[in-house]
Amino acid sequence: EAGVAQSPRYKIIEKRQSVAFWCNPISGHATLYWYQQILGQGPKLLIQFQNNGVVDDSQLPKDRFSAERLKGVDSTLKIQPAKLEDSAVYLCASSLESVGGSYEQYFGPGTRLTVT
Amino acid sequence: KNQVEQSPQSLIILEGKNCTLQCNYTVSPFSNLRWYKQDTGRGPVSLTIMTFSENTKSNGRYTATLDADTKQSSLHITASQLSDSASYICVVIPGGVPLVFGKGTRLSVIA
């Protein structure tokens, strides 16, 4: 079974530039998550999708971050404009369902973003 | 406030030795607790999943314990190997979203 795919793996941009990350979840997984992981910290949930609908985006900085999951499969996360503090690893995860969080989440390798 | 605290922050052990990582949480309500291993440059991979009624769960050389009364969990690694060098993250699921992640313990196993 193929895992969660993410691209690019690494990205370096200057502050105030824009960047987009792509995620392809495990086939058949209805729930998709985007996390931000700052060095030395645990992942922080940015947004959760159930199929193509948003379940939770309470921690997404909506003034600069946006995400979509068209057709309920692939997803993109965009930052516009980027700030220095956005430097982090952006992890995508997927699970079969999200009921009570009881379903296992499978993580992708992440995209390491450096903002200079 | 839902929180997960892990200790130690980092640990260095000799290959072949055992070690125990700690996780204390204040998450309520509690659904289940997971330990993840995160290799450098990779996403987290699940090691164990425990519900509140389970006290111990093993996965090879990894054994997790859970005391739901004191809200403590531990991850014991037996006969450590160089490949065990990674961050170990404790995650508590409060029965809804979002999951509550600890900051992790950075383990280094040296020859």
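Chain B has a mean pLDDT of 92.
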